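Customer escalation, tier 2.

The customer says the design service returned an amino acid string that "doesn't look like it belongs to this structure." They asked us to rerun it and document both sides in this ticket. The original structure tokens are below, unchanged.
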């Protein structure tokens, strides 16, 4: 049976002693070089889920439609290429190890530790505040698009615009006690998905034959996720992405941390939040046209991935034929995308 997202509650029973910081409040990863060691075999397995059904949402695995043009399992993320394992020691120091995706045998000094694990093969993920397991979080890089001026259905049109995050898995062990002994401890770990996918489908009612290129934006989504709990940060961000032109309209598979401030055991739907979808198309005559949609109900019911569909999109014959059809449309005609190497604040 498919696991529901509200059951994903990491081990957070109790509170550890606040970790003392090193100079500049950064983790010092080499303080235990000469300390006696014990061995632990980290054995990592991965939950390869691309969406988790929220309360009131659609169970897409059993309700999948042939019209989507792909199998449900095709959207599942792959196993990453590498694993990063961060130990937070009880004296406030730390150590960091890179391992194979399935884990490795590591030597750590005896004592009590908290352990944070995540894949280390990302390109657009930015890791912030890693000096403490309580503050460690992942964001994604800022991306701008000159033609995108915000979504008219959102209360604010000046959200940060960002790249899609890479696939990210994470896990957190609140307390592990290492002891010096002859045998090696075995520590099985389940890596949970922290990034999900939305299959976004834009259906045209008229004028698709005039469309050369398409791209989109999904507004109101989470800008960051805490690595120790899987909870998303409260601040929203707009994800910019490219689309493919299909026989029904346009389509994109969009990576996201999910909705902001989720999960929250006190409620499942945030009535004070809105989510907006944008489609921008370049016509074969070189003209650009933009459409905004309110997808609040769809996204609120799918807080961690799912399917978003809008329809009734129309390009009139006058718009499509204006100026003739001799314009040589190229991806460069979109104008600039600019990636800014900064995490969200």
């Amino acid at each position: 049976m498919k696991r529901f997202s509200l059951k994903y509650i990491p081990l957070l029973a109790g509170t550890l002693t606040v970790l003392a910081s090193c100079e500049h409040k950064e983790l010092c990863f080499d303080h235990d070089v000469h300390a006696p060691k014990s061995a632990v075999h980290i054995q990592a397995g991965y939950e390869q889920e691309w969406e988790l059904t929220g309360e009131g949402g659609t169970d897409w695995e059993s309700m999948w439609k042939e019209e989507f043009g792909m199998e449900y399992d095709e959207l599942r993320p792959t196993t990453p290429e590498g694993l990063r394992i961060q130990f937070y020691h009880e004296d406030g120091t730390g150590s960091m190890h890179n391992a194979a995706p399935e884990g490795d045998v590591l030597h750590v000094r005896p004592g009590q530790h908290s352990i944070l694990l995540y894949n280390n093969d990302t390109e657009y993920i930015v890791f912030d505040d890693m000096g403490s397991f309580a503050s460690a979080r992942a964001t994604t890089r800022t991306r701008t698009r000159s033609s995108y001026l915000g979504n008219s259905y959102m209360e604010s049109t000046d959200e940060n615009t960002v790249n899609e995050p890479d696939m990210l898995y994470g896990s957190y062990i609140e307390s592990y006690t290492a002891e010096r002994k002859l045998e090696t401890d075995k520590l099985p770990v389940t890596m949970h998905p922290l990034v999900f996918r939305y299959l976004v489908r834009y259906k045209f009612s008229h004028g698709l034959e005039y469309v050369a290129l398409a791209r989109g934006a999904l507004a109101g989504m989470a800008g960051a996720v805490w690595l120790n709990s899987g909870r998303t940060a409260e601040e929203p961000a707009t994800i910019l992405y490219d689309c493919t032109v299909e026989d029904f309209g346009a389509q994109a598979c969009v990576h996201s941390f999910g909705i902001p401030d989720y999960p929250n055991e006190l409620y499942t739907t945030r009535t004070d939040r809105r989510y907006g979808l944008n489609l921008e198309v370049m016509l074969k005559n070189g003209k650009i046209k933009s459409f905004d949609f309110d997808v609040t109900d769809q996204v609120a019911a799918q807080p961690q991935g799912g399917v978003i569909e809008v329809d009734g999109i129309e390009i009139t014959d006058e718009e499509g034929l204006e100026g003739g059809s001799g314009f040589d449309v190229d991806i460069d005609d979109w104008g600039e995308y600019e990636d800014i190497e900064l995490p969200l604040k």
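Tier 2 assessment: The sequence is consistent with the input. The longest strand covers residues 211-222. Residues 1-26, 28-33 have pLDDT under 50 and may be disordered. Sent an explanation to the customer and offered a walkthrough call.
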